[in-house]
Amino acid sequence: MGVQGRVKKRNKERMPDLHFKVMIAMFHVIDFFYPYIKRRVQTFGLREGMTVVDYGCGPGRYAVHFSKLVGDKGKVYALDIHELAIQGVKKRIQKQGLSNIEPILIQGYDSTLSDDAADVVCAIDMFFIIREPTVFLGELKRITKKNGMLIIDDGHQPRRVTKEKIIQSGHWDIVNETKDHLTCRQKG
């Protein structure tokens, strides 16, 4: 498949604007009645001073919690392919006065980050939409420090499918599995 075909295929991974806005509205309702994210991120092993990548950050629901966990000495990169996501993160940064989050609009799987940039990469509720999981997981490996971790969940796909994609990629070993997510370390 040529470059144009790959770009066209990846554009299908980008949610239409209307769907994105509906998703945001649903998140507001969910977060109001069931504020589980703060409790969930406590299980990710994030500590002060770490650099975290929130890949597929959406409107920044997780990024703001990551920001508080890593503190002023840490850094959070909030990456997404959707302009509305980056706008949402910027609004949260301004509203909450957060200085350690950097929102980045990306195209395809290129994070634009340097090699070994992150202690932890989090891919939450988005892996199911990735059409080229081996390429995607390779990019996550590239930007993760050698002793770093990948925190990934199933989103809207069965756990066995998530695990198959990770194992088949050849980039990651699954080192811990909870009902909520998988923790992975780089192979070799």
Task: Walk me through the topology.
Blueprint lengths: L2 H9 L5 H17 L3 H5 L9 E5 L5 H10 L4 E6 L2 H14 L4 E5 L12 E6 L9 H11 E9 L6 H11 L2 E6 L4 E5 L2
Parallel strand pairs: 1-2, 1-4, 2-3, 4-5
Antiparallel strand pairs: 5-7, 6-7
What is the averaged pLDDT score?
89
How many helix segments? 7
Architecture (CATH level 2) name: 3-Layer(aba) Sandwich
How would a textbook summarize the main sheet? Answer: 7 strands, mixed
Counting structural domains, the number is 1
Order of helices and strands: HHHEHEHEEHEHEE
Share of helix, binned = 40-55%
Structure, explained:
- There is one protein chain.
- With 188 residues, the protein is of the alpha/beta class.
- The chain has one domain: Vaccinia Virus protein VP39 (Rossmann fold), CATH 3.40.50.
- It has 7 helices and 7 strands.
- It has a 7-stranded mixed β-sheet, with helices on both faces.
- A hairpin with a 4-residue loop joins β6 and β7.
- The longest helix is centred in the first third of the chain and has 17 residues.
- It is globular, with a radius of gyration of 16 Å.
